[in-house]
Amino acid sequence: MLFRILSVSGSLRFGSSNGTLLAAAARLAPPGVVVESFDRLADIPAFSPDLEEDSAQLPPAVVHWRHAIGSASALLISSPEYAHGIPGALKNALDWLVGGDEIVGKAVGLLNASAVSAFAHPQLVEVLTVMNANIVPEASVLLDIPRRGMTVEQILDDPDLTEALRAAIESLRVVSDKLR
């Protein structure tokens, strides 16, 4: 059976270091594992409890988001930090999951692409823990890469980065298998 990791960049910027890191992870996935990028974060409308209460009223982008999370075996998030916090688009998308069960018990890894980012990572851990996601410490790592400074190929040429990404992917697979 194919093991599907849904990768989500908290940055909407084209070519962001977070997106690049996740693209490298996708290229490093071993046989039987696929890392698929969710690239429609910007399409998700502002969270509305009124719409969330009635599943028939859910916006199509939210339905797509929830389905993507629910059908994935695990989740891998790489997020920047904006104004000492989680980027608004990512937090908004996570808010849309609160009323569902798509993320409950799901193995989640959190990649941090910047050593100077000290607030968003613990905030993501808190939010996802409250949502009953299963944060995998071995898949939650700091990989300090230059801001918008490395290509996928440069990441793949760095043995320390590739080793850390491979270990994160394997940790997600192992923990997810134990949760089944």
Task: Note the topology.
Elements: E1 3-9, H1 17-28, E2 33-38, H2 49-53, H3 60-71, E3 74-78, H4 88-95, E4 107-112, H5 120-130, E5 134-135, E6 141-142, H6 152-156, H7 159-179
Parallel strand pairs: 1-2, 1-3, 3-4, 4-5, 4-6
Task: Write up this protein.
It is a single chain. The protein has 180 residues and is α/β, with parallel strands linked by helices. It has one domain (3-179): Flavodoxin domain (Rossmann fold). The protein is built from seven helices and six strands, in the order E-H-E-H-H-E-H-E-H-E-E-H-H. The protein has helices spanning 17-28, 49-53, 60-71, 88-95, 120-130, 152-156, 159-179, and strands spanning 3-9, 33-38, 74-78, 107-112, 134-135, 141-142. Strands 1, 2, 3, 4, 5 and 6 form a six-stranded parallel beta sheet that branches. The longest helix is centred in the C-terminal third of the chain and has 21 residues, at 159-179. It is globular. It starts with a strand and ends with a helix.
